[in-house]
Each structure stands twice: as structure tokens, then as C-alpha cells.
Amino acid sequence: MKYSIIAVGDEVLKGEVANTNCDYLSKSLMEKGFDPSFTFVCGDIEADIAKCLDMSKDSDLVVLTGGLGPTPDDLTRQTVASFLGLPLALDQEIKNQIKQRFQKLGLPMPDNNVNQAMVPKGATVLGNPNGTAPGLYISQNNKTYILLPGPPRELVPMWEDYALNMLYTPGQKTFKKEYYVYGLGESAMAEKLGEMLMRKEQPFVAPYASLGQVRLRVWARVKNQKEFENISSKICEEITQKLAGNLFEDVLEIELGKALKAKGWTLSSAESCTGGLIAKTITDVPGSSDYFKGGCISYSNEVKMKILEVNQSTLSEYGAVSEQVALEMAYGAKRAFGTDCSIATTGIAGPGGGTPNKPVGLVYICVMWPGGNKVIKRVFTGGRSEVRFRTMMVGMYEMLKRVSV
Amino acid sequence: MKYSIIAVGDEVLKGEVANTNCDYLSKSLMEKGFDPSFTFVCGDIEADIAKCLDMSKDSDLVVLTGGLGPTPDDLTRQTVASFLGLPLALDQEIKNQIKQRFQKLGLPMPDNNVNQAMVPKGATVLGNPNGTAPGLYISQNNKTYILLPGPPRELVPMWEDYALNMLYTPGQKTFKKEYYVYGLGESAMAEKLGEMLMRKEQPFVAPYASLGQVRLRVWARVKNQKEFENISSKICEEITQKLAGNLFEDVLEIELGKALKAKGWTLSSAESCTGGLIAKTITDVPGSSDYFKGGCISYSNEVKMKILEVNQSTLSEYGAVSEQVALEMAYGAKRAFGTDCSIATTGIAGPGGGTPNKPVGLVYICVMWPGGNKVIKRVFTGGRSEVRFRTMMVGMYEMLKRVSV
Fold first, then answer.
1. CA distance B289 to chain A (A)
2. What does the pLDDT look like over A307-345, one tens digit per residue?
3. Residues A351-405 pLDDT 10s
4. Is A135 exposed, middle or buried (0-12, 13-18, 19+ CB in 10 A)?
5. What angle do CA A347, A292, B303 make, to 5 degrees?
6. What residues of B are in contact with residue A393 (Cβ under 8 Å)?
7. Cβ-contact A9, A43 below 8 angstroms
8. Do A297 and B297 touch (CB under 8 A)?
9. Of the candidates B231, B255, B223, B245, which has an alpha carbon nearest to the alpha carbon of residue B177?
10. Does the first or last residue of chain B, that is N or C, have fewer Cβ atoms within 10 Å of its Cβ?
């Protein structure tokens, strides 16, 4: 079952109003087992709405949002009616409801609002407890058209309380299993997974990449969880084997928290170039105070010496951005905060501060755990925020590897 | 001049990734004097991309986003080339650039990535400092096609630094003056500015609100900077008067840095509930090591006592989330890091940890400067990340107020 969404309205088209309805409806329809075909945004122009309807003719379901208001630029109702060849007729009951809404507010009903009581022949009216624009549900030649008002506080209840019930087809639902991939780029991951990413039959495998992370989703439309597990277990096992060491059930900061709790270990941070980003990310997780005790942002040599007890001789011999200082910072954090593990970073995030020997993007990351320690050297490209972000991701991933062993 | 936008990608179509690019590009194009025609979202299917291209044929400009990655489901490049009848050829220079990007990361270039160096005949390549996917700019029969990568951190700089310059039409240009408003909500600001926000003639005044911040833009399409200043100086003066004390030239962290440098003062942080977010935000600014010396994330009472020298009796008498502890933390940061100023936060970010007397969202923020100190108590609504973010914004704003006097 294919669906298309047509969002009608100049304000959405011009980006003046964020188009949240399409995402919302897509998520809901996918969960119900529909597959998306197109999403359109068009202005309040009859010909443009008609073009989108025409281009949606391969879809089993077309959802239109917006353009149901009382003013002359609200054209969705009449355009759909004329596209489907359905005459419009005044629905006296709706007219009365709208009138009553205005009466409750102590206002006369403007003449314009009568337009909202015009209903295409054969359409079912969807109630709108939060506004004057009723929704419409039209079935024709095995295709369904649903017209919803634009404002989310009217659209969402109408969708959930009325439209979905009418759409519901018993039998199938979308089931999924999600993974997170760290320490491996999207193309390297794609090479390891190969053909699997291009499966033309269920279950499907889809990657979603962002900076330093790939989310991997295995999904299928089946009757129940058991059937999903039956058809996906082999693929999931294959993924687990092929991406061993890089595959996790959740995001880094949550995985790291789970691993620390399982070991009963505590963590601290000593950050120079990341400037607090690691501590911030770790403490994004509710309950992180169970294992994260504290951190030091050492943005000067004095702080590195005073709080982290880095040796002055190490700083002068190797410089603040060096393997040796990263190591002493990690020791210092463990000592100052009394923790079992620590992550330390020192580097040149840029744009200034680079030299031929120590270019912008050079970072040293030290992770320390009860069994040992490891200093990682990397040279990252990209701007200041990318260098800082990647440093954080590598630090968290390298720490997790040691804690989850 | 009409434009259409085609966002390509299953993840956008399915609503798994918020479609922020379309709004962003629409705003930018409207400012440049273009009128929107359609916005499409389609999946990674060649036939569907082609349908959208076909439906955009009345547009003077078609911007495509996404589908420029290295994997087999990235189809935008080849679909546009085939739609326009342009052969693809390998661009050796781009291939080398991509190779170098991987070399810098110490990785071999996966074979897949060669696809990203394929360029349609006659196209201009748009540089991508933040990723491997180059953009493309194609002119054919008075129509322009611009292909941009999907991730906003790659799309935005490519759009602003390369694509917009190529679109430039001689004669008029967009000139603008931007302000940042802090410590004042969007509706309170709108009340102060009144009619000004609804101007129907140049210069226009447009607010862009986000959490804890409103960006206010005065803009017009005119010949040159001098003409812009002539028509906008009166409005700008009025804004400056009406929003005095809340109006700044730049974002908080940059304004705070400028103010500290002007006074020759240094800063440190002591963070409990914000967990490093304040230090992270301050150090987002290049050169912040000139005034920011360091910070302590004190996620346990032990750290508050040991590093920040908060008194055990204060902690046991008033609790960690109290005015008194915020004050002692700020003193402690000044002492530990040897700075002139400090910001300290302690609070209950949630979702757990609230009590009837100290509910989730309660925070104490202390700012300290050579002339004195101030503790601010707030009870924020919203989830954990919103409470943390708002605490950071209030701390930075209250500090800035004292430093910029």
C-alpha cells in the first residue's frame, strides 16, 4: 500500500511554518504498514494542487493537509472534489456545528465559514474538536483521499481519533530492530555488509549516517514480532558477525553508562580541546551521576598542573598537545575525582594554533581503565566543531571498547 | 523567477530525519527574490526522482538535496545527468581530494567513493569542506539545477559559500543587519517592537526564535550597502532603543568573550546540572583560551568539596541544590582556576531526583565578577535537555550583563 502526502499552503511552501505534519503522518503511516511514495508541498494555487494529485495517482492513499480554512485562498476541498468529479453540497449539520462554535465564543459566524460546510458527494466527515475546519475521508476506485486541517493541534487529534480508525487494515504492521555503528565510516560499513543493503525483499536493511555514527535498521511488514524474528534472525546474526566490535544496541553515551554500571566502575574526564563536550555528552543521560563523578576542563597549562597534576617538565618538553600530556591528564582525572576510569583529550581544534609539526586537527585522546590505558593519536579534518565532535566520539568509543570487554 | 526543491532520500521521506533543508533553502531563496513553486520529497528511486524533475520543469531553478553519497542507493547525480541528457565523466581532481580526505584520516578510500567524483558534462563543482560529496551546479536552457548533499552541516556552508554566489543576479542584492535578543521571549519582544514586525515594505524585520534566543534580521534587496544603511538606519535605531539591554550583535558566547577581553577579565565554570554544557559553549568560540581558563564538572558532593572547596556543612544544611552551594561553587571556581569571574550551576535536570520542595527544573545559577555576585533561582519546564540548555543560556546572559557594564 503506497501513500503520498500533499501539504497545501503558501506559509509551508515559503518555509514560514515548519512542515512537521509530513514527518508526523509519515511515521504514523509507516507504523501502520504503508510505504511512502512522495511528499509534496505546494502553494494555495488550484492548478498546483491538481498537479500534485495527478502525480499521486499511483498511490493507494493520498493525505492532504491544509487549505481547509474559510478564506478564498483555502482551495483544497474544492480542488479535490473537482479532481475526482464529485459535486459539493452544503452539509446543514456541519454548518450548525460551526455556528454553535462561534456562538459559544459569543461571535456571529462570518459568511466565509459556510464554505467549510461544503462536502463532496459520498465523503465522510471527520470531526474537529479543536477548530472549525472539518476533515474529509473520500474513497473512490480503491483509492482513499483524506483531507486534514493544517494546524498540528487540529490535525493530530483528527488523525489519531478518526482517520486512523477508518484506515486500519488488520493483519500487518512494521516491526524493526535498530543498531548503532561506531568506529566505522558509512562506506566501510557498506563494504562489509555488501549486498545486504540492497535487499529487494523483506527484511530490509537501511543505514542512516550522521557525524561519527551510523544507525542501522532492519525492518519488515509482518503480522507480529514472532514472524519478524523468524524472517530477520539470520540477517541480524550476519550483521552482528560482520560488524562485531562496532555494533551496539544504543547510542555511545548510553552504552558507555550501561557498561560502566555492569562493571561497577566510575568515570571522570579531563578535557582540553573538547572543552566540556565529553562531560556534557555523558551527562545527557539521566542517572549518569551513578557512574560519572566529575570532570576538569583544563584550558590552560596552570589548570593542567594545579588540578590534574601534569608535570611542568612534561608540558615544557613535549608541549600541551602531546601523547605524554594526554596520559598525565588521564591519570590526573582519576586521582582528582577518585574514579576507576578516565578519558582525557588534548589537541588543536582550530582554526588558529596550528604549526607544521602540530597541525590543526591533531588530537591525543587517552582512555584509562583499571586494566591499563591507551593513547590514540588522530588528525581530523573539518572545522573546529567537527574536530571537537569527532574527538569526543573517538574518546567515548575507545573507552566503551575497554569497559565492555 | 520560480524555484522548486527536491529532497531525495528514504530517511527524509519516511520522516526519520527532520526535513530542515527545505525550510532553510526556501527562506534563503525568498530573501534572494525567488518565488517557490513546489517542494518534493521522494525516496531513493531513480524513476521517482525523475518524476519530480519532470514536474519541476516550469521552475527556473531546481535545488536537489541528498542522494550524493557513495553507496548504491545514492542516485541523484546520475538521475539528473540522465534527465538532462548529460554524460558523466570521472573528475580526477575530485577523486584526489576525496582520497586525500581519507589519507588525512589514515584510512584507505573505499572503492564506492569513486562514484562521488563522477561529474555531468558542463557542470560546475561546488566544494564541500565538510564531507566527501561535492555539490554540482548545472545550467541548461536558462534553467539551473543545483545538487547539494543532504546533511545540513555540509549543505549550509556549500549553499552560503558557493551556490548563492553563482545565483547572484546583478543589480540587487540582499543586505542585512542581524541582532540577537537574549533574556526576552519572542512574544515579549514582539510586543515591544509592535507594527515593525509586520512591515509590508523594505526594510523588512524578521524574527527567528529558538530555545532561549531570538535572532532578529533587518533586510532589504537593494543596490549596495550604502543604500541599505540609508533606508534601514531609522528602523535599526528604533530597535536598539526598544530592546536596550537585551539586544546584541552576536551570539551569547561570542559577546561574552568580547566583553571579557575588553575588561581584561578571565572566566571559569563550576557545573553540576549543566554537566559541562557551559564550558563546551564558551569553548565553541575560537580563541576562547584567551579568557577561559578552565572549569569543573562537580557531579558528586565529594568533587564539590575536594576541588571547589564547598563546605560539608553547607551541603548537609542546605542540600547540593541550593543558593548557598551555588555561591560556594562560584567562589570555588574562581579560587581553583584563579580567574576574575565565574559561573556556577546546580539544579535538578530530571527526569528523576525531584522532591516536593525541590522539583525537577529547579536550578540555582551564580555569576561572580570582580564587583560582586548574584544568585538566580529559576524553575524551568521541559525535559532534561531543555532544562540544561535554559540554565546555560541564563547563566551566560547574566554573566554577560555584569561583564559588559
1. 6
2. 999 999 999 999 999 999 999 999 999 999 999 999 999
3. 999 999 999 999 999 999 998 999 999 999 888 999 999 999 999 999 999 999 8
4. buried
5. 90
6. none
7. yes
8. yes
9. B231
10. C
Residue in the structure block whose three cell numbers are 539470520: A234
CA A13 to chain centre: 22
A267 → chain B, closest CA residue:
B299
B297/A269 touch (CB, cutoff 8 Å), yes or no: yes
Average pLDDT of span A107-134 = 87
Q: What would the mean pLDDT of B374-387 be, rounded to a whole number?
A: 93
Most confident of A209-213, A281-285, A349-353: A281-285
- Per the CB < 8 Å rule, is A295 touching B277? no
Among candidates B18, B52, B104 on the partner chain, residue whose Cβ is nearest the Cβ of A23: B18
The answer to whether B257 and B285 are in contact (CB under 8 A) is yes
Contact (CB<8Å) A41/B39: yes
Q: Tally Cβ neighbours within 10 Å of residue A405.
A: 9
d(CA B37, CA A96): 37
H or E stretch including A366? strand A362-369
Say yes or no to pLDDT of B380 above 60. Answer: yes
User: pLDDT digits over B333-362, tens only?
Assistant: 999 999 999 999 999 999 999 999 999 999
Judging by DSSP bridges, how do beta strands B2-8 and B61-65 pair with one another?
Answer: parallel
DSSP labels, B211-253: TTEEEEEEEEEESSHHHHHHHHHHHHHHHHHHTTTTEESS-HH
Chain B closest-CA separation from residue A294 CA (Å):
5
Cell of A25: 503522518
Q: Considering CB atoms only, which of B73, B101, B276 is closest to A381?
A: B101
pTM of the model: 0.73
In this complex, the residue of A188, A297, A351 whose CB is nearest that of residue B279 is A297
Our CA-based measurement puts residue A280 at a distance from the nearest CA of chain B, in whole angstroms, of 5
| CA distances, B228 to each of A185, B181, B193, B239 (Å) | 47, 22, 20, 16
C-alpha cell at position A69: 480554512
Higher pLDDT, residue B257 or A200? B257
Q: Average model confidence (pLDDT) for chain B?
A: 92
Can you read off the three cell numbers belonging to residue A60?
Answer: 493507494
Beta-carbon contacts of B93 under 8 Å, excluding residues fewer than 6 positions away, are none
